[in-house]
Amino acid sequence: MNAIIWGTAAGIALAFAWLAFGFGGFVLVAIFAIVGGVAGAVWTGQLNLRAAVDAARGRRVG
Questions:
Q1: pLDDT of residue 22
Q2: Residues 40, 50: Cα–Cα separation, whole Å
Q3: Given this model, what pLDDT does residue 61 score?
Q4: What is the pLDDT of residues 9-62, one digit of tens each?
Q5: Chain CA centroid to CA 10, Å
Q6: Hey, which of 22, 29, 51, 61 would disulfide with 17, CB 3.0 to 4.6 Å?
Q7: Is residue 35 situated within a structural domain?
Q8: Is 44 part of any domain?
Q9: Domains in the chain: how many in total?
Q10: Which are the contacts of 42, defined by CB distance < 8 A and separation ≥ 6?
Q11: b/e per residue 51-60 (b: at least 16 CB within 10 A)
Q12: In terms of residue numbers, what domain contains 47?
């Protein structure tokens, strides 16, 4: 599946969370989605967390 389909599915899921649980549920689902996406990217090697933290701290990356 490509990024457009995943993005659409995520948008639909967030919309249903908002309708079912209100704004608080929407925010909670969005936070869990972000955490899950970052965890998946780290797990698959698409995100080097150590390099990201070093870059955020202003250290040289590379």
A1: 93
A2: 15
A3: 64
A4: 888 898 998 899 999 988 888 888 888 888 888 888 888 888 888 888 988 765
A5: 10
A6: 29
A7: yes
A8: yes
A9: 1
A10: 49
A11: eeeeeeeeee
A12: 3-56
Is there a domain that residue 17 lies in?
yes
**pLDDT at residue 19 in the model:** 92
Select from 29, 27, 28 the least CA-distant residue to 10. Answer: 29
The b-or-e profile of 9-45 (16+ CB within 10 A means b, else e) is eeeeebeebbeeeeeeebeebeeeeeeeeeeeeeeee
Among 15, 6, 17, CA closest to 40: 6
What type of residue is 32? F
Q: Is the pTM of this model over 0.70?
A: no
Q: For residue 42, give Cα distances in angstroms to 11, 33, 35, 48.
A: 22, 14, 11, 6
In this structure, are residues 47 and 38 in contact, taking their beta carbons and an 8 Å threshold?
Answer: yes
